[in-house]
Design goal:
The chain is 41% helix and 11% strand. It is of the alpha+beta class. This is Recombination protein RecR.
């Protein structure tokens, strides 16, 4: 970072502030989202009777990458 031009450092800092202002935790499952409720929780095609308990959003992402689980998270 110290070897990069100042304008790149400023762009990075602006991007970090933007994420901090726009991204929040889903009110239903704790996933990262820009909305009150994330896209997974809003998806009517998912099985709302099946819940996978995860500790962190990164755990949810790992399960989602398998494309095998079609329920919701908590």
């Amino acid at each position: 970072l110290l070897q990069r031009p100042k304008d790149e450092a400023l762009a990075l800092s602006a991007a970090i502030v933007d994420v901090k202002e726009r991204v929040r935790f889903c009110n239903e499952c704790g996933n990262l989202t820009e909305e009150e409720v994330c896209a997974i929780c809003r998806d009517a095609r998912r099985d709302h009777t099946l819940i996978c308990v995860v500790e962190q959003p990164v755990d949810l992402i790992s399960v989602e990458r398998t494309s095998e689980f079609r329920g919701l998270y908590h």
